[in-house]
Protein backbone atom coordinates (compact mmCIF):
# COMPACT_ATOMS: atom_id res chain seq x y z
CA UNK A 1 0.00 0.00 0.00
CA UNK A 2 1.27 3.47 -0.90
CA UNK A 3 0.64 6.66 1.02
CA UNK A 4 -0.04 9.41 -1.51
CA UNK A 5 0.06 13.17 -0.99
CA UNK A 6 -1.05 15.52 -3.75
CA UNK A 7 -0.24 19.22 -3.36
CA UNK A 8 -2.31 21.49 -5.63
CA UNK A 9 -1.62 25.21 -6.16
CA UNK A 10 -2.68 27.86 -8.61
CA UNK A 11 -0.19 28.31 -11.43
CA UNK A 12 2.08 31.36 -11.35
CA UNK A 13 0.30 34.32 -12.91
CA UNK A 14 -3.15 33.19 -11.76
CA UNK A 15 -4.52 35.57 -9.14
CA UNK A 16 -4.67 33.84 -5.76
CA UNK A 17 -7.36 35.78 -3.90
CA UNK A 18 -7.08 33.61 -0.78
CA UNK A 19 -3.32 34.00 -0.76
CA UNK A 20 -3.66 37.79 -0.97
CA UNK A 21 -6.17 37.75 1.91
CA UNK A 22 -3.81 35.67 4.06
CA UNK A 23 -0.91 37.94 3.18
CA UNK A 24 -2.92 41.05 4.10
CA UNK A 25 -4.04 39.52 7.40
CA UNK A 26 -0.47 38.56 8.30
CA UNK A 27 0.71 42.08 7.49
CA UNK A 28 -2.06 43.46 9.70
CA UNK A 29 -0.87 41.25 12.55
CA UNK A 30 2.67 42.54 12.27
CA UNK A 31 4.36 40.03 9.94
CA UNK A 32 5.21 42.62 7.30
CA UNK A 33 8.00 40.51 5.79
CA UNK A 34 5.51 38.02 4.31
CA UNK A 35 5.26 38.28 0.54
CA UNK A 36 3.76 36.24 -2.30
CA UNK A 37 1.52 34.09 -0.06
CA UNK A 38 -0.20 31.26 -1.94
CA UNK A 39 -3.02 29.07 -0.67
CA UNK A 40 -3.37 25.55 -2.01
CA UNK A 41 -4.82 22.24 -1.04
CA UNK A 42 -3.35 18.98 0.18
CA UNK A 43 -5.07 15.70 -0.63
CA UNK A 44 -3.84 12.58 1.19
CA UNK A 45 -4.96 9.02 0.61
CA UNK A 46 -3.85 5.40 0.74
CA UNK A 47 -3.64 3.60 -2.58
CA UNK A 48 -3.57 -0.17 -2.83
CA UNK A 49 -3.70 -2.68 -5.64
CA UNK A 50 -1.75 -0.79 -8.30
CA UNK A 51 1.72 -1.44 -9.71
CA UNK A 52 2.66 2.21 -10.22
CA UNK A 53 1.06 4.47 -7.59
CA UNK A 54 2.69 7.61 -9.01
CA UNK A 55 1.21 6.99 -12.45
CA UNK A 56 -2.23 6.31 -10.95
CA UNK A 57 -2.05 9.45 -8.83
CA UNK A 58 -1.10 11.45 -11.94
CA UNK A 59 -4.18 10.10 -13.75
CA UNK A 60 -6.30 11.11 -10.75
CA UNK A 61 -4.87 14.63 -10.82
CA UNK A 62 -5.40 15.02 -14.55
CA UNK A 63 -8.96 13.70 -14.28
CA UNK A 64 -10.30 15.12 -11.02
CA UNK A 65 -7.98 16.44 -8.35
CA UNK A 66 -6.50 19.45 -10.18
CA UNK A 67 -7.85 21.86 -12.74
CA UNK A 68 -4.77 21.70 -14.93
CA UNK A 69 -5.74 24.84 -16.85
CA UNK A 70 -5.08 27.03 -13.80
CA UNK A 71 -3.51 24.67 -11.24
CA UNK A 72 -0.30 22.72 -10.95
CA UNK A 73 0.26 19.75 -8.69
CA UNK A 74 3.05 17.79 -7.05
CA UNK A 75 2.75 14.14 -6.03
CA UNK A 76 4.57 12.50 -3.11
CA UNK A 77 4.56 8.73 -2.65
CA UNK A 78 5.63 7.13 0.63
**Span of the ends, CA to CA:** 9 Å
Low confidence ranges = none
Number of strands: 3
Largest sheet: 3 strands, antiparallel
Oligomer: single chain
Question: Shape, please?
Answer: elongated
Structural class: alpha+beta
Tally the helices.
2
What string gives the helices and strands in order?
EHEHE
**Largest sheet: spatial strand order:** 2-1-3
Alpha-carbon Rg, integer? 16 Å
The averaged pLDDT comes out at 97
What do these coordinates show?
By secondary structure, this protein is α+β, with helices and mostly antiparallel strands. The chain is built from two helices and three strands, in the order E-H-E-H-E. 32% of the residues lie in helices and 29% in strands. It has a three-stranded antiparallel β-sheet, covered by helices on one side. The radius of gyration is 16 Å and the shape is elongated.
Amino acid sequence: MAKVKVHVFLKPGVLDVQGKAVEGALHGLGWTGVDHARVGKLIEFDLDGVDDPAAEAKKMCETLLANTVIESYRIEIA
